[in-house]
Design goal:
165 residues; mainly alpha; 3 helices; 95% helix
Length: 165
């Protein structure tokens, strides 16, 4: 999922921005300390020093602004990671939902199969009896036909015997 949403890219951006923010904070702290040391050393502020101090304050303000923008970018990257995680959870939920629907459809067909199976099991003795009945009818018809042909043959023989003197 990290590859799909490319969260490692956001992670690298966040790490780079965090390092940059820390570096800017260290630089700003060093500038403050240098300015304080300079002021303490001189025990007063001259025109040239005042100019340098104003320049240092401006640099500090610019770096502070970039630090804030870095923090905003960090927040955005964290939000993107949370969004990717939420997207991953939603896609997992959708997959589970579709699996559940498939299982419900299968459950209905399984239920139908069980009903048909139980009906077939109940019909098994009836079918066996029906087959036995049909076989008995066929056997009876065959016997009747045999009996009828035997009677015809007997009648024919009797007629022949009567005709002989």
């Amino acid at each position: 999922m990290q590859r799909i949403f490319r969260t490692e890219r956001y992670q690298r951006i966040e790490e780079a921005l965090t390092k940059e923010a820390q570096q800017l904070e260290r630089m700003a702290q060093a500038e403050r300390e240098r300015a304080k040391a300079f002021c303490v050393q001189r025990n007063g502020v001259t025109g040239r020093t005042r100019t340098r101090l104003l320049c240092a304050r401006r640099r500090y303000a610019v770096r502070t602004k970039s630090c804030w923008s870095s923090k905003r970018l960090e927040d955005c990257a964290a939000g993107a990671r949370r969004g990717a995680a939420a997207q991953q959870k939603l896609s997992a939920r959708d997959a589970a939902q579709s699996d559940l629907e498939k299982k419900r459809e299968q459950a209905e067909s399984v239920r139908d199969f069980r009903v048909r199976s139980s009906r077939a099991q109940r019909a098994q003795p009836v079918l066996y009896s029906e087959r036995s009945y049909i076989e008995a009818l066929n056997t009876e018809r065959t016997r009747r036909e045999a009996y009828a042909s035997a009677e015809k043959a007997t009648a024919l023989l009797r007629r022949r015997n009567m005709m002989r003197p």
